[in-house]
Amino acid sequence: MSIEKQVDSGRRGLLVATCAAGGVAGLATAGALVSTFQPSERAKAAGAPVEVDISSLKPGEMQTTEWRGKPVWILKRTPEMMDSLKKTEDKVADPKSEKPYTMDMPEYCDKQSRARKEHSDILIAVGICSHLGCSPISKFQEGIQPSLPDDWKGGFLCPCHGSTFDLAGRVYKNKPAPQNLDVPRHMFLSDTKIIIGKDEKGEA
Amino acid sequence: MAFVEKKLPADAPVVDKALNWVDSRFPLTKLWNDQWGKYYAPKNFNFWYIFGSMAMLVLVIQIVTGIFLVMHYKPDATLAFASVEYIMRDVPWGWLVRYMHSTGASAFFIVVYLHMTRAFLYGSYRKPRELIWLFGFAIFLCLMAEAFFGYLLPWGQMSYWGAQVIVNLFGAIPFIGPDLSLWIRGDYVVSDATLNRFFSFHVIAIPLVLLGLVAAHLIALHEVGSNNPDGIEIKDNIGPDGHPVDGIPSHPYYTFHDIFGVTVFLTIFSAVVFFAPEMGGYFLEYNNFIPADSLKTPPHIAPTWYFTPFYSILRATTSEFLFVVQAGAVAYVALIWLTTKLPQMLKIAIAAIALIAIAGMMPGALDAKFWGVVLFGGSVMILALLPWLDVSPVKSIRYRPDWHKYVYIVFGIAFVTLGYLGVQAPSPAGERVSQVCAVIYFGFFMLMPWWSAMGTFKPVPKRVTFAAH
């Protein structure tokens, strides 16, 4: 007598149905476990805009504030620093910031200075390199120095993989970082008070 | 079948009776004999063969010290750094347990890299040991995961920014990347959520997988038998007693061989633990003694030494280097089409894949960051293919053409150079050198099906080379 003849098709059908039901329950459980990896509600709620006072910031100085757990730089550029941006225009990979990293450059920002037109000397950028997320370090000194090209005009150097950025946070050509630094949505509450993560259109 | 228990004489020692009682219910003696006691290993093992058991010893050290560290450590972003310092300063002998664990991590990689070098030299991954190699490869991946997850736990500057960089690697994958790295972190930045899940992976998930893989690695080894420095199969020459004439039981012979290795290892290990636990910043990086600061990356960030060869390949992948990779892909496809007898369909498939990759490397397509991650991953994964890339007629380096030794030496130098450059700060000269080394690294593996069969091979002996001592 062959094995086939002993198979009770009714029971075989029930067996298949049971396995299918068990499989669905198993997959659903796995789905729940995988979902626990997502940001929690608390983490999602922690992205409120921050207000910064820049009254003590002198030209050529930078201050760092925290927004959504990331460093946000506020750099007050000197006229010489602003001039350097014209010289770096053809050395940077994306001079018009057409390829954004995680957020589009706000439309009220100038293409070259990457700052609001009424305060074009003040650069506000998220200090996170678009390569692998290190925070670049300030290299405002011009000229010859280690890890930098000899015709350095001042800017930022990422310590992790050597990407360089100009004083508007635009990445130089042929560097590991593919995009310019993010410029968050922001607005000036007064000449010395800035809010980051919020502008005339509401929260970013 | 009815249960039959072997009857021992009434005056048999109590120990024998107890063992007999157990053996009737659980194959204790059989397991011991199969896995070690009467496992016949080639009699010509040299010092390269002590690293397997040494790796087991380090695994035990890591698990035992890890258990005690968890009793004092706090997986909480606000408390983690201080709890490690508490272990170092206030817990009696806590510093010793912590330094044993941190030194053990580096020791594990030293031992495993030497263990893999042995396999390279004597062709231990060749048929019929492909699965042993694959299990070993999976163990290597688990070790890398353990080391990576564990490195976040002290919550120092290097912990934080190292994790930031590696998690962001996944962000380079087109379309799903940014969401994937968000999912891994569980937050928009590396945070408490990340620390907690890494802790869970480090202390339970990966160790469980690791132990299973170690068991599989050993079971597979003891099933097919060990290779040896001559690369010949001792099972082809069975003596009248049913055992290989060139084999000796692991116990007591290799028990003592390995214990000697263990004493040498523990001497060096203790010296490092007591006198140089930081090893000049290589085993414990100085920046990791500063608490994590999400607003400031340390001026020089590098992974721990055991990751740096692969990390250098990641760093070497610039948009300029992609032109070299494109040229390499074209040459490689041409080589396959002109010199191999692979089925036409396979050749077409290979050409198509290469074409897609070349198109993806064009300026304006997928950026260098993505390809850096691909080459970084590929440089690790390519190790898994070794049993199928090596087609030389002999296994051991001893009977290969002499120039093969130089190929291995050049590969070794390239690998070490990549490792060295990976701990250094990025520099234009270093970038060029690491690009050359990356080409050598991939060339070694990808051209292996050609070069490993070339040259005049020496005659392989019937019996192992062994001088009684």
TrEMBL record, chain A:
InterPro entries: Rieske_2Fe-2S, Rieske_2Fe-2S_sf, Rieske_Fe-S_prot, Rieske_Fe-S_prot_C, TAT_signal, Ubiquinol_cyt_c_Rdtase_Fe-S-su. It is a single-pass membrane protein. The keyword DNA-binding does not apply. CDD domains: Rieske_cytochrome_bc1. It holds the Pfam family Rieske. Its cofactor is [2Fe-2S] cluster. It is found in: Membrane. Binds 1 [2Fe-2S] cluster per subunit. It catalyses: a quinol + 2 Fe(III)-[cytochrome c](out) = a quinone + 2 Fe(II)-[cytochrome c](out) + 2 H(+)(out). Keywords: 2Fe-2S, Disulfide bond, Electron transport, Iron, Iron-sulfur, Membrane, Metal-binding, Transmembrane, Transmembrane helix, Transport. Residues 87-195 form the Rieske domain. Its EC number is 7.1.1.8. It comes from the Bacteria. The Rieske protein is a high potential 2Fe-2S protein. The main subunits of complex b-c1 are: cytochrome b, cytochrome c1 and the Rieske protein. This is Ubiquinol-cytochrome c reductase iron-sulfur subunit.
